[in-house]
Specification:
The structure holds 3 protein chains of 3 kinds. Chain A is an alpha+beta fold. Chain A has helices at residues 2-6, 32-60, 97-108, and strands at residues 11-17, 23-28, 70-74, 78-83, 86-91. Helix content of chain B is 38%, strand content 25%. The two termini of chain B are 23 Å apart. Classes of the chains: A alpha+beta, B alpha+beta, C alpha+beta. Chains in contact: A-B, A-C, B-C.
């Protein structure tokens, strides 16, 4: 399923990571060490977003924010998208975010 | 006596506490309500996690900058300061002018962090 | 504007710096470029700005929920590392060896 996601236009790398941040499976640009770093980053960033979302819910008393479903960080050319224990690096010149988020959703529920 | 109890005896310390990295427990003493202490635990834990991530990334991106593994952090507002080392937090009244002594006490009584948030 | 020369006179100071709202390094004064360089400082400034922003969000929320005011606006942030501590106030900061850290003095000097 990860390989199918990688086959989407604009997807440059895709990883699945364990709950402790270690790489389970990864494909795409860069060597194994690069994919491991991507997995670690995604794991840490997921926790960061979770922590901030918890605080938003705590301060606003507004439900519906936690647990966060997915996150994405968008630059001018690249984006990093995460959902569940999956993360992918995307070239925005070649694809749209909707397609990628749907692809991640499909891969996560596979 | 527990570190938390000893911390609350230092001049300027309004409250001190500890939280579990897993986020399911906290313990505190001092002038905070139970709900405030719970929120403080959530906030301190979240910032500690974020900081560890950032320091790890900093180390990976540059050469070792002397800050890894992160030992703690401190944030200061107009009237109050929060100091955190490992899973201990301390709320401080700035008017006591005792920040150095409080940080020194925490540093001396909380083990050096290895980077594992357990 | 921060007086980096003055900041560097703090005991144990390894580098003094100034950064923009978004964390880019604007100015630096480094004691030993073998240990610290502008690239590291730039990243460190971004870390400080990121945590300042998180702390500002927390202070805002905390004050609204508890009515305990005195945190907002956040002025300073410090990271106590393994060997060195970075102390930041507004847009300037200093890196000090852990054994020499004097927070009160550092904040006073950074305040200008």
């Amino acid at each position: 399923m990860l390989k199918r996601l990688l086959a989407e236009d604009g997807v440059m790398a895709v990883c699945q990571f364990r709950d402790d941040g270690e790489l389970v499976e990864g494909y795409g640009m860069g060597d194994e060490a690069m994919l491991q770093r991507l997995a670690h980053f995604a794991h840490d960033y997921k926790r960061l977003v979770q922590g901030n979302a918890d605080q938003l819910a705590m301060f606003t008393q507004m439900s519906g924010w936690t647990p966060p479903g997915a996150w994405l960080v968008k630059g001018p050319v690249w984006a990093v998208c995460g959902l569940s224990n999956l993360v992918c690096v995307v070239d925005l010149r070649e694809t749209g975010l909707n397609t990628i988020m749907q692809g991640l959703q499909d891969a996560a529920s596979w | 006596m527990s570190l938390i109890h000893e911390l609350t005896k230092l001049p300027g310390v309004m409250a001190a506490g500890e939280y579990a990295y897993r986020g399911d427990r906290f313990n505190y003493e001092g002038h905070l309500s139970e709900e405030m202490a719970r929120m403080a635990s959530i906030m301190c834990r979240s910032t500690t996690m974020a900081l560890h991530m950032q320091v790890d990334m900093l180390t990976q991106l540059g050469k070792d900058c002397g800050c890894s593994p992160a030992q703690g952090w401190l944030v200061s507002g107009e009237k109050y300061t929060v100091v955190v080392r490992a899973n201990y937090f301390c709320f401080i009244d700035n008017s006591a002018n005792n920040l150095n002594a409080i940080v020194k006490y925490i540093n001396e009584h909380v083990d050096t962090q290895t980077g594992e948030l357990v | 504007m921060a007086d980096l020369e003055k900041i560097m006179q703090l005991k144990g100071a390894l580098a003094a710096f100034e950064f923009s709202d978004s964390g880019e390094l604007v100015k630096s004064n480094i004691k030993d470029e073998q240990k610290i360089n502008d690239d590291i400082l730039d990243l460190l400034c971004h870390v400080c700005v990121a945590n300042g922003a998180i702390a500002t969000m927390q202070a805002r929320g905390w004050e609204k929920v508890t009515d305990m005011t005195g945190f907002y606006p956040i002025k300073g942030f410090s990271l106590m590392g393994f060997e060195w501590t970075v102390i930041v106030n507004q847009h300037s900061g200093v890196i000090v060896a852990n054994d020499d850290v004097d927070f009160d003095k550092a904040y006073a000097v950074l305040e200008g």
